[in-house]
Amino acid sequence: MRFKLDENLGERTVALFVEGAHDVRTVREEDLSGCSDPDLFRTCLRESRCLVTLDMDFADVTRFPPRASAGVAVIRVPRNPSLVLLEALVRDLLAALTTHSVSGRLWIVETGRIRVHADSEEDQ
After folding, report:
1. Which of 41, 56, 87, 90 is at a distance of 20 to 30 A from 79, taking alpha carbons?
2. How far, in Å, CA of 12 to CA of 71, rounded?
């Protein structure tokens, strides 16, 4: 699967996606750091990449409708999370991808669960 990791995720997170044999690009390596959220979302749409971010603004489905996208995965961490917790949440996301598709959906990855937003009941 194709992913774009937001600037708030580092090299250790990239390595987890690479280990899972995913095609991953980062905002930093593409010189998109500091771009607006709408510009980043449009870039992901154009490249058919699922956006993975810590930015809860992307959980707003009215501003960033996941339906036409390759998906949006928001990693929701508590204030001042440890790197171990962040990596565990990313591993949870990657494990869920083995049985479910994020395409066209918003996933909010939290400790112990992944909330899925889809347009209709039949999509879930």
Report:
1. 41
2. 22
- CB of 66 within 8 A of CB of 105? yes
Q: Are 108 and 74 in contact (CB under 8 A)?
A: yes
Token pair belonging to 26: 């980062």
Structural domains counted in the chain: 1
State the DSSP code for 101: -
Q: Is pLDDT above 50 for 122?
A: no
| Domain boundaries, position 43 | 2-123
* pLDDT above 70 as % of the chain: 95
Cα separation, 77 vs 81, in Å, equals 6
* 27, pLDDT greater than 80: yes
Residue whose entry in the numeric block shows the structure tokens 């990855």:
109
